[in-house]
Known about the structure:
CATH topology of the largest domain: TIM Barrel
Largest sheet: 8 strands, mixed
Helix content: 40-55%
Bound molecules: phosphoenolpyruvate, magnesium ion
Number of helices: 25
CATH architecture of the largest domain: Alpha-Beta Barrel
CATH superfamily of the largest domain: Phosphoenolpyruvate-binding domains
CATH class of the largest domain: Alpha Beta
Amino acid sequence: MTAPSEIVLRGLGISSGIGWGPAVHSPWRGRMIFRRRLAPQEIESEVARFHRAVGIAREQLRVLRQRMEHALGKEHAYILDAHVLMLEDAGILGEIETLIRTSAVNAEWAVKLVTDRILAIYAEIKDDDLRERGSDIEDVANRLLRVLSGDRSTCALPEGAVLVSETLPPSLLGELDPQRIAGLILGTGGWTSHVAILARGLGIPAVSGLRGALAQIEDHALVLVDGTRGLVLVHPSPDTLQRYERQRQERERHWIRWQARAPLPTTTRDGVPITIRANIERLSELDEMRRCGARGIGLLRTEFLFLQAAPELPSEEMQLEAYRQAAEVAGREGVAIRTVDWDENQMAALGTLHALRDQQTELGSSEPWLPERNPALGLRAIRFSLRAPEVLTTQLRAIVRAAAFGNLRIVLPMITSLEEVEQVRRLLQITCRELRAEGIAVPDRLPVGVMIETPAAVWLADELAAAVDFLSLGTNDLIQYILAVDRDNDRVAQLYDPLHPAVLRALRHVVQAAERAGRPLEVCGEMAAHPLHALTLLGLGARILSMRPRAIPLIKDFVRACELTRVREVVGKALAASHRAEVRELLLRSLQELRLELPDEALLNGSASPIGEVS
Ligand code: PEP
Ligand code: MG
């Protein structure tokens, strides 16, 4: 038999690196189910656990159905009605419950036995359409098993697999075990989409934007993901694999060199100290942050807590414990804890809206809930928190209490007005007063900062800087809003340009506003993690950069090679340039002057084109 020939697919590299392995298409398949024998006293609680899982799965389907109806119309959403009906079918549920009781087995095993039996009947059916309905049963069973296991991921991946999926909610990627994933291939998603940030944070090579081409990747086919160049190779030849293996080894050598120097101080060649902090998405990154030589946490994204607690909301105690851990690891340099930055669609996808309803917030009570058509401009981040003050108060209480264990500060996402800051400050005051009344220690000082990530915040930067203790530049969102380019959309990725003259001028304005007010400015968007962009930020006057831990050793090495006086000169010229190409040309020349030995991945842009090209 001849070996299948190599197919090269071109997409958008969203997380650098090289990985290969068998392709596994999402959705979730092939879960291993184990039988556990129950002690007699365990049976009732197992039956209750099963019914709880049915309730959660039904709620997930209800939300999904609403979303589908909204996006595709009633005629498509009915598919999910069939799924809901199965979860209400007294016959099926009764059979599973009886099996748990009479055979004293775990709920997973009972679900498997009953659904396998039904599936076997469907498999015998001659009528094609009717036989197809068996896949609905499989889908529902998988959902139920997933809820029962507490695992919200879509895939049970074999070791070393490459996950192939049209889209992947970051919540699901966050739940997957990065050690098991060799690469990620997506139909859609831009460089600063949250799934891309997460993939980079986890060190998973990823390529997006392959859309229709995904069909050319059969399940289990050997695929290679070159996240640095945005390539996917299906059935790579032995020669190709050898070539990539050599590249992988070279990458490894660079990494070892950078990491060895990571604990050293970060001072430019002309003696200016630069502070490098870590962006943390999950507590499991704290170890890596330490190894990479970060000075504190410049951004603790707290969405992971909402993900872990879903479909409930994270409790005060759960949050307190997480913030305490982060505070202890970060030490003197402290942690900037960002209040939750999610939109309603993401909350609904996790089935969390029902918990908001229980709290009788204004949000949860607005029935029937319809998906946000434009979540980036909708009820997101601080807007969401201010409309669900119970959720915000719980988060503030946990932060204030955790401040007893370290040096914490609060940062507010997606601010567009001073009123929003004042509202949060009032709520914080009330929270501190209540905690004191409960006899709980409240720190004398808890700095509050704002993310500058909207054009409104740029133009209010002077007033905002005066009203808060520090500014945090969220370039990922800021670029999307200044350039009107959806950060999640790979089709406009070429337009998402951190070096666009309009972006540079906005950044300069914010840096100067912070200087005028004497407030520290931290940059925590992805720009900080890219050599050319980091160089630009330094030239604009930024002195604190925060990034995913994995990017820290490279950026530290890079900063040490920079001569700030020269960089400032070049960036000064770039600020006067009016074309994207002109800016890029100037900065690239300055990068080349440094004569650094940088691997390809450091020279790839945060868009589909290599750094030297402008489309
Ligand atoms: C940003 O927008 O730059 C940022 C750091 O926040 P996030 O990427 O989480 O939106
Ligand atoms: Mg943001």
